[in-house]
């Protein structure tokens, strides 16, 4: 294990800084317990960076990330910056950062906590034990293809986005999915739209080829529309799901519903090796920003992923996840998770509870 953890922290916009503050407290608690020197260095990104220096992804931020073992990111974006040219928008910074750091595999574990299962036994039976790992390709596809505005010969405005995948891009992310499946239930579902899209036909061919290297892991192909339905109908049938960038973005927000809130879904964006960027799946939630109402658990669970994938500290990762579990079992909820009558706490108070549960477990 490393004795020094160098973490770049990019709080970003909206609720980004609020949830990041709680995530950093959890990381600090773990590092203090482990006796590890934690170097947290903050950088600017998104609208906050645009406002401060006129660019959403300053070179200093990229340099900081490259000089770190891991990056934690809150969220970027908001209506304030919506009218800027595409390359100045906060979202462009996030895409640019993912590309520049080679973060091609985005892991989005979807693991409903028992304490949040619906009250009806029928509904809980359908969700109990569901544990899906979405592996989303993160540096290719529509988000990175050529974009342009043109005019038709008739003078009508036209917009073009291009969806490009090459074999090597598909191969590495599918291989990552198979490797992860080996440590789980040994089942990969590859999601595409091969009945219509040429890029999906290539995706399916490559996935089938890679699967031959993993005879112990079962592969199934599903079309994205059918998968979107099956995910809700029968979530327990899925183990690892691998898919392209846009499909993975949409399907993971859909999957968040299984956990009770988008505020529960963490993510790890990985390059080859141990380097990674960790962020909640949700955005900057401008509708609740600044009100201490955001659920910080997705951000805190992203710290668990950092401990697991970058710092190789499985015990600490499990301790953070267990602290979240115990806090939820105690009944407290942020507003997004609350049923009538539940004790509701704010962002910071939820962070307090998790840190207290974690410290109690770590000193034992
Ligand atoms: N990784 C990132 O930085 C992402 C940024 N965005 C950006 O965020 C901005 C807002 O996008 P939206 O479509 O509204 O998506 P969003 O994920 O920010 O919010 C969707 C809904 O979920 C709620 N929500 C989100 N996170 C929550 C949390 N932690 N606790 C409680 N409720 C939460 C919000 O209040 C809102 O009602 C946009 O500028 C978008 O581009 C969107 C997704 C990812
Ligand atoms: C904000 C976008 C650039 C991406 C997004 O929605 C995501 O990564 O979940
Ligand atoms: Mg998204």
UniProtKB/TrEMBL annotation:
Subcellular location as annotated: Cytoplasm
> Which GO-annotated molecular functions does the record name?
3-isopropylmalate dehydrogenase activity; magnesium ion binding; NAD binding
Listed SUPFAM superfamilies: Isocitrate/Isopropylmalate dehydrogenase-like (SSF53659)
Coiled-coil stretches are: none
Q: Any idea which positions bind Mg(2+)?
A: 225, 249, 253
E.C. number(s) listed in UniProt: 1.1.1.85
Q: In which pathway does it act?
A: Amino-acid biosynthesis; L-leucine biosynthesis; L-leucine from 3-methyl-2-oxobutanoate: step 3/4
Cofactor: record remark: Binds 1 Mg(2+) or Mn(2+) ion per subunit.
Would you identify the family this protein belongs to, as annotated?
Belongs to the isocitrate and isopropylmalate dehydrogenases family. LeuB type 1 subfamily.
Protein's UniProt name: 3-isopropylmalate dehydrogenase
Organism of provenance: Calditerricola satsumensis
Q: Gene name?
A: leuB
